[in-house]
Amino acid sequence: MNVFISGQKYFGESVLRLCINLGFNVVGVCCPVGDNYIGRLASLNKIKVIPAGSLNYASMPDGVDVGITAHSFDYIGRLTRYKPRLGWLGYHPSLLPIHRGRSSIEWAVRMRERVTGGTIFWLNAGIDRGDIERQTFILIDPKYFSMCPKKAAAEIWRGKLCPLGVKLYSEALKDISAGIINKTPQNKVFSTWEPSTSGADIYRPDSLMIPQKT
C-alpha cells in the first residue's frame, strides 16, 4: 500500500516508523524544514520530503492509496484531499465529535472530564468533522485538574494519547490494507468545538460554509 504522511515532531516520526515497519511504501513526507523527527527519519530512509506549507495537488506524489496526517498543521485542500485513492486519515485526541479543535486535551482538563480518548477519522472539508474510522477512550487521572491545564494536557498527550494514536493508526492501516474500510458518520447531537488556547486556529476557507453546530 502506498502512503503519504503530512506531519511533524515525535508523533509524525512514530507514524512514519509504524508505516515502515508494516511494510508500506511511503512515497513522500510533508514536514517543516529542519524537523529532527519525521524529517530526519524520512531522509535516512531516502523518502521524498516536501516542505510544510507547500503541499498541494501538484506537489503531492501520484499513486497514493492513503494520505495520513500526524500532528500536521498544514491544511489539506480539496484537490489534495481527493488525490489519494482512498482518501486521507487524521488522528484527533478526543472522542469526536466531542472537543473538535486544536486544544481538545486542554479543554477536557479545564472541564474536569474523567474520560477522553482518541479518534482516527477520514478528512473532509470541515474541522474534525469527517467519518470516524475507529476510536477508543482513556481515563483522565483527577490529579491533572489541579495542574496548569497546558502542562496537564502535555503530560496526557505524551503518556497516553500519543501512544494511543500510534496504536489506532496501526489497527486502521492494517484493516485498510486488507480491504476493510470503516466509515461511521459523526453524531452531530454530541458535537462540541472549542477555540485554540495557544494561538489562532488554522484558516480553512472551505470550512466557513459549514455551520459550527454540524
Class derived from helix and strand content: alpha/beta
Radius of gyration: 17 Å
> Helix coverage percent of residues?
25-40%
Give the tally of β-strands: 7
Number of helices: 5
Tertiary shape: globular
Terminal-residue CA separation: 33 Å
Question: Which features would summarize this protein structure in a list?
Answer:
single chain, seven-stranded mixed beta sheet, 214 residues, alpha/beta, disordered C terminus, 5 helices, 7 strands, 29% helix
Concise synopsis of the structure shown:
The protein has 214 residues and is of the alpha/beta class. The chain has helices at 9-21, 38-44, 78-82, 104-110, 149-177; strands spanning 2-7, 25-31, 49-51, 66-70, 88-92, 115-122, 132-139.
Structure in words:
The protein has 214 residues and is α/β, with parallel strands linked by helices. 29% of the residues lie in helices and 20% in strands. The protein contains five helices and seven strands, in the order E-H-E-H-E-E-H-E-H-E-E-H. The protein has helices spanning 9-21, 38-44, 78-82, 104-110, 149-177; strands at 2-7, 25-31, 49-51, 66-70, 88-92, 115-122, 132-139. A seven-stranded mixed β-sheet has the order 3-2-1-4-5-6-7. Helix 1 links the parallel strand 1 and strand 2 (25-31). Helix 1 (9-21) packs parallel to helix 2 and helix 4 (104-110) packs across helix 5.
